[in-house]
Model the fold of this input.
Amino acid sequence: MTANLLDYDLDGLAAFCERLGEKRFRAMQLFRWIHQKGASNFDDMSDLAKSLREKLKTTACVTPLTVLQQHISTDGTIKWLFDVEGGNAIEAVFIPEVDRGTLCVSSQAGCAVACRFCSTGHQGFSRNLTSGEIVAQLWFAEHFLRQYLGRSDRVISNVVMMGMGEPLQNYSALVPALRVMLDDHAYGLSRRRVTVSTSGVVPMIDRLGQDCPVALAVSLHASNDVLRDELVPLNRKYPIAELLRACLRYLKVAPRDFITFEYCMLDGVNDSAIHATELVSLVRTAHAGVWCKFNLIPFNPFPESGLTRSPHSVVLAFAKVLSDAGIVTTIRKTRGDDIDAACGQLAGDVKDRTDVQKRMNKRRTIPILAEMAMVPHGKEDSVND
Ligand code: SF4
Done:
């Protein structure tokens, strides 16, 4: 069986080369050819000894993902649907801005967390991606974009692990992939410009802090546990207080001095002034010291969710409550609307493998706003520049 070299970080590639009887610096050369020059054919790697190239041809490969669909939005956003075999597809999205190019990358085919407002969550979980499949999204996008845009310099400056899947539930593949992104001999991205977004897998937040601290975004989406239990079911295992304590610990090692809280604005569900005030009290009083930014995300409706987007005026009013409390708050621009660029939308016709839809319909019990207002406080995920 041949090894897919996209699976290896530099240490992994050095170990592979050693098994072939080659020195570490050969791994470095190979690593640069693959990631910096986008080479997948060993014959193109002209400064590698011919004997090594011959060995590689029989023991290794650089296997990219197959592109099933490519959609280019009028605003420059590009979305790819990649085949990951077994009837599974994953998405990656490139979002160009004046001062940066951000790639949103998937970590799993489907997702087991089953957030109510997420198209991917409604598809159920199929499998974890390998490190190579995570890296292959960046490898393809970077080298495609250089050609497409006629550039020789790096196009992608930021990576956000915010595509399909919960990255911290695929930890063993995630960390080597992050190391490839950060390595100066590969993509050389700054830790501040690589963001892992989690729905709140508390123990793995701690491990990420030890193993590979990068910028952290937390999908919060609710201001108290009663509501978050409904919107982000993982909250039943790791409630808000526990999550915020993990954020505090992470901040001690994080490359940035804040956590980004993602908050999807759902009409009549989590978007009232009361919710905004609860959030302020969470991060300013109950868990003071969790320095944070809020990123308010306009919901991208899809039929199965039964949810709708908060009106813009409501989003502005919500943002004002947070800003007035001194919390930096941004409202995410909707990008690529004409190509269904929101997470999971393109793969939305992927079959519901685990009857997640049926299960969600059973527990569709989000309390209406008036009821939420009576919940006592005590009861109770651009991101980087
Ligand atoms: S929001 Fe993220 S964690 Fe939640 S279901 Fe979607 S992909 Fe999974």
The chain has two domains: 3-61, 66-372. The pocket of iron/sulfur cluster is lined by residues 111, 113-115, 118, 120-121, 164-166, 199, 219 (CB under 6 Å). Residues 350-354, 363-385 have pLDDT under 50 and may be disordered. The first helix runs from residue 10 to 19.
